[in-house]
Every structure is written in structure tokens, then in C-alpha cells.
Amino acid sequence: MHLTSPRERAVAAVAEHAPEHRGPWSDLGSGLDHQAFRVGDLVVRVTAPDACAEVTREAGLLRLLAGRLPIPVPSPRFADPARGVLAYPLLPGRPLLGRTPPAGAATHLGRVLAELHAVDPAALDVPAEAAEPREWLADLTGPPELLEVLHADVPPPTDERVLAHTDLGAEHLLAADGRLTGVNDWSDAAVTDPALDFARPYRDFGPAFLDEVLRAYGRDSSAFRRRITFFARCAALEDLAYGDPAYTRPAARSLTWLFGGLMP
Questions:
Q1: At 84, is the pLDDT very low, low, confident or very high (cuts 50, 70, 90)?
Q2: Cβ neighbours of residue 181 under 8 Å, at least 6 residues apart?
Q3: What distances in angstroms separate CA 27 from CA 10, 32, 45, 131, one per listed residue?
Q4: 3-state secondary structure of 127
Q5: pLDDT digits (tens, 9 = 90+) for 28-75
Q6: What backbone torsions phi and psi does residue 181 show, to the nearest 5 degrees?
Q7: What's the confidence (pLDDT) of residue 22?
Q8: CB 183, CB 73: distance < 8 Å
Q9: Which helix or strand (DSSP H or E) is residue 217 part of?
Q10: 95: which residues sit within 8 A by CB, 6+ positions away?
């Protein structure tokens, strides 16, 4: 099948699998490897052409997680791997990007992660990733003094592996009416180091939020926090390089607690 533009692929997939959704269409934005649209109450996400087959894997994971986590996740309406399209009803709430999380959100998230990380990886069709800290430094850019800090304090890798979302930034956490209402974009889910799921919440919401998440999760140690901090620092520099002010402004603010007294 000839792959046309993301919008054309989205429209064609909806016409075939959910023809009752006729419009109007709106653009929900894009990430590094996908673009998302909305038609009615349906979110239609289109992957990069070289990742089309992954929508089937993500749809299967979402169906497995439905009802197993104490928070809503997208419920696939259809997956069209030939076009690289995954569609699901819109979750309630708005992303927390640039917003203050509601009271109790950290405790709620900690409980979500405890349940997610307890899922048996053997039952999953998701990739395994080593999360080798030194590999994160390979293509990382940023202020030389901050890169120097990162290179000077690389934690050892861990053999621990869990099912992880791996990209739990504020843009993927939804909230409304004073509570978390959903977690979206599971395209990067992997069996990997659990520290990855704490790094971006730490980057986006600060140390007090991390403390509360870890209390609810039921685990804390200096080695675990060291890996969380390392990945959070890398994620902050990644967002600084992204260029979009919606991401660069929060990332710049996070440098205060991520690098603190280590900054020149």
C-alpha cells in the first residue's frame, strides 16, 4: 500500500474502520515518531512509515492493561498496521504539560506504577531495552558544564526489568477536576529499568513530587534515586534541545532541582 501523508492515512483508516466518524478533523500535534488527529471523540494517531507494524503491538498492550491499572489508558477502537494508524476514544482531561499537578496526583501515580511494574513481562509482546546509562550520553547535547556533570556521575546499569511506559512526561499525564484521569501514548513501552518511569515526573514536577511517588510505590534507595536522577537530567537536556517552548521552558526550570548546586 502506498503510504501518503499522515492526514490522508488517518482519513482513509477511519473511513474503512470507523465510518461513523465523519468530521470535523483537527490536529492534536505531533511527536518525534507520530502525528495525532481528532475526529469527533476519536483520537487517530499515525506513526512514522518505518514503525507501522508497531501499532498492532501497542493495541495489544493497551487491551492487556485495560482494567488492570488504577487509571484509564486508551482503549483501541481499531489498529490499522498497513497505514500505521491506531485509533481510540478520547480520554478525559488535559495534559499536565505546563500545569501544576492536582493534589494527590503523585500518590495516584505511584500506585499506578506499582501495578504496571507488577505485570509479568513474559506475557507481553513489547521490546526489551537495556537502558544502559552511558548509551544515553552518546547523542546528548546541551550546555557543556551540564554535560560534564552527567559524564562525571554515570550510575551503573541494573539487571532489573519491568514493563515500563518509559515516557511519562507531563504531556502524557491527563488530569481534570482535581485528579489524574489517564495516561496516554504507550508507543515507547518496553521491558526495561523501572527508574525510567520516575525520571520524567521528577523532571517535570520536582523533588517533593518524586518523594511522594516513591512512597506510594513502596520503594526507595540511593542506587534507585541515582538512576532516576541521571535519566531525569538526560531527559531535561533532550527537551531543551527539542526547540518547542512548551517543552523547553519546563525543562529549563527543572535544571534548578536536577543540577542544583552542581551548576556553575
A1: very high
A2: 71, 72, 91, 92, 93, 174, 175
A3: 11, 15, 10, 33
A4: coil
A5: 988 778 899 999 999 999 998 778 778 999 999 999 999 899 999 999
A6: -120, -5
A7: 85
A8: yes
A9: helix 207-217
A10: 170, 171, 172, 173, 174
Tell which wins on pLDDT, 119 or 262. Answer: 119
Which grid coordinates are listed for 254? 527543572
Give the residue among 247, 255, 241 at the shortest CA–CA distance from 142: 241
What is the grid cell recorded at 41?
471523540
What is the reported pTM? Answer: 0.94
Name the grid cell of 32: 518525534
What is the grid cell recorded at 89? 476514544
Q: From CA 107, how far away is CA 203, in angstroms rounded?
A: 17
Of 119, 116, 111, the closest CA to residue 214 belongs to: 111
Peptide bond into 245 cis (omega under 30): no
Could you give the C-alpha distances from 228 to 146, 166, 234, in angstroms and in order?
Answer: 16, 12, 10
* Element containing residue 145 per DSSP (H, E): helix 144-152
- Structure letter (DSSP) for residue 2: -
Query: How far apart are alpha carbons 262 and 22 in whole angstroms?
Result: 54
pLDDT at 141: 95
**φ, ψ for residue 222 (rounded to 5)?**
-65, -40
> Tell me: the pLDDT tens digits for 135-166?
999 999 999 999 999 999 999 999 999 999 99
Residue with cell string 519491568: 162
